[in-house]
Amino acid sequence: MPPSIASSFGQVPTMPPSILYYNPRCSKCRQALDLLRSRGVEPQIVEYLAHPPTADELAALVAKLGFADARQLMRQGEPAYRDLGLAAPKLTQSALIAALAATPELFERPVLVHGDRAVVGRPPERVLEIL
């Protein structure tokens, strides 16, 4: 078989890398990771409390999620959300993202990024939607 033909056989398409924003103390995160692993997906795990995403990374994440408002990536029931006044309508998206970068405990989790798409794993089965 000519090399040009042989080289096209047996090539497995590469999957885009998966990143799971994860908190090991969160049962939903652990469930999402178990679901991924049961499907043969071993994501890069980012423990966002120990390694918080930057404001630029969060802005990109909000875009990949398709959210119109950064508040959709926030745990709005957390005391810090109320204490920081993040429900105020006058806040810009940049201000919200900066607050989220500075207060990672507000980050809604788990979040799976797969290629140019992302999903919040609530319920955990949602992470399978973008594979």
Low-confidence blocks of residues: 1-8
Question: In this structure, how is the largest beta sheet organized?
Answer: 4 strands, mixed
What's the SSE pattern? HEHEHHHEE
- Total strands: the figure is 4
Give me some keywords for this one:
Glutaredoxin, 4 strands, globular, 131 residues, four-stranded mixed beta sheet, 2 domains, 5 helices, alpha+beta
Quick structural gist:
The protein is of the alpha+beta class.
Can you tell me about this structure?
With 131 residues, the chain is of the alpha+beta class. It has two domains: 55 residues, Glutaredoxin (3-Layer(aba) Sandwich), CATH 3.40.30; 54 residues, no CATH class. 32% of the residues lie in helices and 13% in strands. It contains five helices and four strands. Strands 2-1-3-4 form a four-stranded mixed beta sheet. Strand 1, helix 2 and strand 2 form a beta-alpha-beta unit. The longest helix has 12 residues. It is globular, with a radius of gyration of 18 Å. The two termini are 35 Å apart. The N terminus is likely disordered.
Would you spell out the secondary-structure blueprint of this structure?
Elements: H1 3-6, E1 18-22, H2 27-38, E2 44-47, H3 55-65, H4 79-83, H5 93-102, E3 111-114, E4 117-120
Parallel strand pairs: 1-2
Antiparallel strand pairs: 1-3, 3-4
